[in-house]
Amino acid sequence: MDVYLPIANLAVNGLVIIALGGLTGLLSGMFGVGGGFLTTPLLIFYGIPPTVAAASAASQVTGASVSGVFAHSRRGGVDYQMGGMLVLGGIIGTGFGALLFRLLTALGQIDTVINVLYVLLLGGIGSFMARDSVREIRAQRTGIPLPARKRRHHPLVANLPWRWRFYRSGLYISPLAPLLLGMATGILTMLMGIGGGFMLVPAMLYILGMSASVVVGTSLFQIMFVTMATTMTHALTTRAVDLVLAVLLLLGSVTGAQVGANVALQVRPERLRLVLAAIVLIVAFRMALGLTYRPDAIYTVSPL
User: Fold this and answer.
1) Which residues fall within 8 angstroms of residue 244, CB to CB, at 6 or more apart?
2) Quick check: pTM over 0.90?
3) What would the 3-class secondary structure string for 173-236 be?
4) Which of 99, 109, 183, 207 is deepest in the core (most CB within 10 A)?
């Protein structure tokens, strides 16, 4: 079933795009993270231009995060005060990201920058997740439990001024910490089309020291608004959002997320994280290979 993508200016198999959306939705439901960090690389591998892939993936993440926010909100799993600061920072970061996106596009380097960022982020986070998962599996096999992690914020966060109480998260920290974290996520969302959850959730746990009971819901709350702002910014400035592509991805991700959630109930969480880490590292390696591989024909000539 061939479908023409007007912004990407190419025809694709619609069933393949829906399947890609279903795969990222499956991973989202299984691992509790947004599938945006895999959607963009998979679209690039399929032949979608990186700028269109990044802009369209952000709109898919918006739709996928809305239902998650409502689900977590019903059980009190969203810190709206903390989420508000993250959203404010994310919107500011989106503005900076838009300027950076246009600058890199004018320099002709945006595709390379998107690929390099994915290699660095996916490689780093995948290695971190794999290390923690292997340690937990070894501890289960040997019967020697790992030392309990103390929930505390990073020393740099403790030194920031103007502390507030974030009652739902159980924190007394400066609002500048979530503001800066939200700005970093907004810039990355604008450049890469990610929801930011795969980076934001660990940062909220290990840098801000938030309670695990509100981390996922608060992260989805921030992602929902920041990806909305990112999609609007792309639509008004770069004009790289392909609605046909986004709708096809969303159709697949909604179904895949439901299947993934059921699978997650039957597999131990540390093994799920190890599988996710392996997938992330494979994608990072493939993107790194694409940056270094020399094609057979360096130059091509096409008729006007």
Assistant:
1) 3, 4, 5, 6
2) no
3) ECCHHHHHHHHHHHHHHHHHCCCCHHHHHHHHHHCCCCCHHHHHHHHHHHHHHHHHHHHHHHHH
4) 183
Question: Residue 172 sits in which domain range?
Answer: 2-290
With tokens 């032949």, the residue in question is 47
pLDDT band at 163 (very low <50, low <70, confident <90, very high): confident
d(CA 134, CA 121): 20
200 occurs within a structural domain: yes
Task: Determine which helix (DSSP H) or strand (DSSP E) holds 4, and give its type and residue range.
Answer: strand 2-5
Structure tokens given for 134 = 């292997």
> Is 304 a member of any domain?
no
Does the pLDDT at position 170 exceed 80? no
Specify whether the CB–CB gap between 128 and 199 falls below 8 A: no
Nearest to 23 by CA among 55, 58, 60, 56: 60
CA distance 257 to 215: 19
Q: Give the model confidence (pLDDT) of 2-48 as tens digits.
A: 788 887 778 888 888 888 877 777 766 665 555 666 777 788 878 88
* Number of structural domains the chain divides into: 1
